[in-house]
Design a protein that fits this description.
The protein is an alpha/beta fold. The chain has 16 helices and 11 strands. It folds into 3 domains: about 140 residues, Rossmann fold (3-Layer(aba) Sandwich); about 140 residues, no CATH class; about 70 residues, Orthogonal Bundle (Rna Polymerase Sigma Factor, Chain: A). The strands form 2 sheets. It has a 7-stranded parallel beta sheet, with helices on both faces. Helix 6 links the parallel strand 6 and strand 7. It is globular, with a radius of gyration of 20 Å. Bound molecules: magnesium ion.
Length: about 375
């Protein structure tokens, strides 16, 4: 029997982390969770550790280390805490694949370390590519590692491109559900609440990405993610609103043919695909029955109603540190919205004003990204407080 793949999950208590553990549990002969990392959820992390028996667990918030250690006393599991421990642990020679499923900018540093250590990367943390796509792509090439997307759209495009020559691609079509406010007027959008925004029609996800879906910032991020993952310029990437979330994305080729990948809106599917590569993992789970869908519909996105989508296209064409600024401001604004400090339409306003106020760096180094992130967060926080 082949040796089990040793998996590190960064963000094991989040939505993608939990679903990754579901997948690992389905294939115990193929995968072993080696390292589990969470930011603050001590109770769930301890529960996962007791069940999956990894070699090591790390809690990001150092003040919770003792609590975690107490819960796991009597086990052989190594208990660590803090960002440095995370950055260090991902380089452990025993680890084969790192599932990067942390939320936001915090995923950048450990992902860079894992790439440098030659790990396979299954990337759910799209902000890593949004912030530093050029840097990440260069590192991936230099260290000869594989980077697989855990994102339903990018998993779809990846599958459509298997066996295809990159020169044969004419454009990528990223599908978007349109979120909970697809049919709302501009006026309606002024009055939506947190509860409204958290009610996604098709996907059950963490709070941050659910708000990003409601503003369509998520789709803007995905355009940037696709550019870096597939080496296709943003002017050849189009967003198509598809409210049923069954067609997960499409690729149009130079001969006029269009390929699509379909499936139920269930993240286990792209997780299974990313971990199973180069093959496919057999699953007895729920199946898509296209016969059950009388209509699959497609429409153009409304960039005026969802200005963050237009801002993302603009950010990628300006390049440099602009996507990093956009991401930082968005993280601050979304957190403030979830904290009831600002309204829904303040989110794009804060992102726009932060981008306008920030200095431009054409070819940012890692340190420039750190600085840009810090400055943009500070500026956006001031706008929230005003
Ligand atoms: Mg997605």
């Amino acid at each position: 029997m082949e040796k089990k793949k040793q998996i590190a999950i960064l963000g094991s208590t989040g939505s993608i982390g939990r679903q990754t553990l579901d997948v690992l549990a389905d294939y115990p002969d193929m995968f072993a969770p080696y390292l589990l990392v969470a930011n603050r959820s001590v109770e769930l992390l301890a529960e996962q550790a007791a069940k999956f028996k990894p070699q090591c667990v790390i809690i990001g918030d150092e003040s919770r280390r003792d609590d975690l250690a107490r819960r796991l006393s009597g086990t052989k599991i190594n208990v660590l805490a803090g960002a440095e421990a995370i950055a260090d642990a991902v380089t452990d020679p025993a680890i084969d694949t790192v599932v990067a499923a942390m939320v936001g900018y915090s995923g950048l540093a450990p992902t860079i370390n894992a790439i440098k250590a030659g790990k396979e990367i299954a990337l759910a943390n799209k902000e890593t590519l949004v912030v530093a796509g050029e840097l990440i792509t260069a590192l991936v090439a230099r260290h000869g590692v594989h980077l697989y997307p855990i994102d339903s759209e990018h998993g779809a495009i990846y599958q459509c491109l298997v066996g295809e020559d990159r020169d044969s691609v004419s454009r990528l079509l990223l599908t978007a559900s349109g979120g909970p406010f697809r049919t709302f007027s501009n006026d309606d959008l002024q009055h939506v609440t947190k509860a409204d925004a958290l009610r996604h029609p098709n996907w059950n996800m963490g709070a941050k990405i659910t708000i990003d879906s409601a503003t369509m910032m998520n789709k803007g991020f995905e355009v940037i993610e696709a550019k870096w993952l597939f080496g296709i310029d943003a002017d050849r990437i189009d967003v198509v609103v598809h409210p049923q979330s069954i067609v997960h994305s499409m690729v149009e080729f130079v001969d006029g043919s269009v390929k699509a990948q379909l499936g139920l809106p269930d993240m286990h599917l792209p997780i299974r695909y990313a971990l199973g590569l180069p093959g496919r993992l057999r699953s007895g789970g729920r199946r898509l029955r296209v016969e059950d869908y009388a209509t699959l519909s497609f429409e153009h996105p409304d960039m005026e109603k969802f200005p963050l989508l237009a801002m993302a296209f603009d950010a990628i064409s300006r390049g440099g540190n602009v996507p990093c600024v956009m991401n930082a401001a968005n993280e601050v604004a979304v957190a403030a919205f979830l904290d009831d400090k600002i309204g829904f339409m303040d989110i794009p306003r804060i992102v726009r004003r932060t981008i306008d106020a920030s200095g431009f760096v054409a070819h940012p180094t890692y340190d420039d990204f750190v600085q840009t992130n810090r400055d943009a967060r500070r500026y956006a926080s001031e706008l929230v407080a005003r």
